[in-house]
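Annotated sample (chain length 177).
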Amino acid sequence: MYTKTYPLQVVQGQLFGMSQSSASEWIQRLLPVLVAALDALGVLPERDGAQVARQKRSRGETPDLIVDGVERRRLRPKDAKMQTIHYSGKKKGHFDKNVVVVHTRSKRVSYLSATLPGSVHDKALADHAKVEYPKRTTLRSDLGFLGYAPTVREHLQPKKSPRSRRSHPARNGATGS
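Output written by the structure step:
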């Protein structure tokens, strides 16, 4: 529950009938156990961008991947400088941000980047992560990755819609007689 919804430890303690400090202790004890179990099952996402191209896949499979930036709301920092760094004007709040790469067929996260402040643009975060994709990959991304040009077989991205060419009549000197 803690890793999915990230509740306050006071809330976590109330839900499980313990104090906030006990909840904190248990979280610190159990998170490494969870990570070890997920690693043993082989379901932890890769954290090294260079390793994405080396991941196992079925013979002859052409990887079909989605890359996206994900934001996670965080408490507003008290320090003014940190507030500025973590503030995302697009979402009007304070966030941490990661890039994830997901396999479209298995719907599993195969890569999770390092966490950076919410003010960082998706493309800049992807460039920082230096993700290497298998050469025959079909990569899908949104407009947050405009200009992102990894070496892949095909990079599918929506086209940016042009601004309306039709102007307001009053701006073109037309009169409304």
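Annotation: The helical segments are 2-5, 9-15, 20-41, 80-86, 122-129.
Annotation: DSSP finds five helices and seven strands in the chain.
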